[in-house]
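[job 4471] stage=fold_predict status=RUNNING
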Amino acid sequence: MAAEPAGATGRRVLLAGATGLVGRQCLALLAADPSVSEVIALVRRPPADALVDGSKIRFEPVDFDRLDARRELFAVEQVICALGTTIKRAGSQQAFRRVDFDYPLAIARLAREQGARHFLLVSALGASAGSRVFYSRVKGELEGALGALGYPALTIVRPSLLLGDRDEFRLGEEIAKRFAWMTPAAYRPVQARALAAALLMAAREDRPGRRVIESGEIGRN
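[job 4471] inference complete, writing structure tokens
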């Protein structure tokens, strides 16, 4: 039997990575979605300026290395995970893996134990557990680990290079913008806003089973 559309009743959604490029866009869209009753945003520290309706959004400071100490936060219907870093920013491959693999998997396990039915992940173009590229291999290993948790619905979005308002200048991003017209659709840079919209549409549809949205599909609808 097909799952009842998520928009039919108020949804409680947990958002990880709410202060990041994609997470900020997700937060704004969730705040404006009448089918969402509450959003629990896991953060290391509350943002200085909350740009969303505080009556629906709960910023919950957590220690990501001790998430099990806040199990009550994971009693939600859906989880959107936009956590991510770069090896440069993390400082080492080990630190990168902790943020991009260990934390998302811990969140997924805790939420599933509390009855969450749908996990939505921001992965990456080329994610594969068999990749020789460390970044892509970690992303692929996470996808596989999530698939073993028994979620009734698992949505994986694999964007190419993400574009949007960042706190830092990235030369590669500026070059990609200029030459995007020459790039095949499957590899073109993706606006963070379009990625967030694709995630929220998938959450509203709430399709059962495993669904992968490749980069070239983002923003088509």
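[job 4471] summary: Strands lie at 11-16, 36-43, 57-61, 78-81, 118-122, 153-158, 162-163, 190-191, 209-214.
[job 4471] exit 0
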